[in-house]
Each structure stands twice: as C-alpha cells, then as structure tokens.
Description:
There is one protein chain. This protein is 15% helix and 40% strand. By secondary structure, the chain is α+β, with helices and mostly antiparallel strands. It has an eight-stranded antiparallel barrel. Strand 3 (102-111) and strand 4 form a beta hairpin. Helix 1 (18-35) packs across helix 2. The longest helix has 18 residues, at 18-35. The protein is elongated and about 55 Å long.
Amino acid sequence: MKDAGYVGEDPAPIVEGxxxxxxxxxxxxxxxxLESPFGFVSAVAVLGLSATxxxxxxxxxxxxxxxxxxxxxxxxxxxxxxVAGEIVFDSPDFLDWGFVEGRPQIGGSVALDKDATSFGxxxxxxxxxxxxxxxxxxxxxGIAVHDGRTDFDPLVDDPxxxxxxxxxxxxxxxxxxxxxxxxxxxxxxxxxxxxxxxANLCGENEGLDxxxxxxGVDF
Length: 219
C-alpha cells in the first residue's frame, strides 16, 4: 500500500532471500542517517571526498574504515564499523611554525551499526616528518558533532547501556593520533586512533574511541 501523497511508479521488486535482506539493511541504514541532521552532515562529509572536485587549497584527502568503540580510554560498548574520511587543507601562514605546519581539516564518520554513533568534525592537524621521509606521525584536535545518545535516563535507557555510549553533550572535543608511512610519491597509509569526549563539561561522559585505517592522497 502506498503512503499518502505518493507520486511515481512502483519501485522495482526486492529480491527475496539473503541478497534481498542485505539490500534492506543497507537501505535502512542509509535512510536512518539521512533522517538525522548530524548523520546527514557526517555522510555528506565522507561522500564529498569522492563527489566534490578538488580545488586549490586542498592538501590531502583521506578515506578508510574504523572499528567503532575500540580504544583504550572509553568503554567499548558500541559495535560494528564505520566508514570515515577527512579533507585536509593547506596550512595558512599563521599556522606554519617552520618545523611543523598546522592544517585545517574537516571530516566525518558514518557508523554502519544502527545503534552506533556517527559524527562530523572540524579541527587542526599537524604532521611530524619531512616531505621526503617515509614514516610520519599525524595528530590533531577539533570539535565533533554527533547523532548518538547524550543524557542517561535510568527509567528508559538502562537496556541501552550494553551497546550504546552516552556522551553527555551533542558537541564533543576530538583528538586523534595517526602513525603512517608514505608508500608512493602521493599516497600515504596510516593507522588512526581517535577519541571523543566532553571533558566532563556535561552530565554523562563515557566518550568514544575509534581505531582504524586511512588511505591518503596528496594534492
């Protein structure tokens, strides 16, 4: 039965069985994130890595996957993986300190599990290592806005504590560390750990740790 106000042709039939079930799960995940403004922002940030033409001022584009809630600081309660990526811009003059340059960065992380947290973020990143050396270390700080749980209500939220993090604030501080290696003149590979926290400025502060892999391309 069609929804009220439906206009257009009937959608193509969905194949039953395993493939149809997988298709339904993926479609449900996409629409769930698009319905949330914070999920929509993070999805746009990640998809923009490939959909947006590279313009002057973009220094590097990174994309990869992360294991959700998989670090040494925050409780490991969320499950599944996330598709993540960042766009790193050229360093402005006032952030060029000679031995290291601060570069503005925007990005996002879209969780694939329906109960896990997605977020978009912006901040600064620095790199230790010269342009010609293969090993390097990236690190940075910034602000993230997420679509996960905030305050904990024991009357309704107790069953959710097993697989959902309660993060207190909608906006969180974000930090990351990413050791890596240059594998080609314009290609880098790195492992990245990121931590989100409200620094005890809001009620709940379980925080969130993600650990994953990034493939970066220099421009």
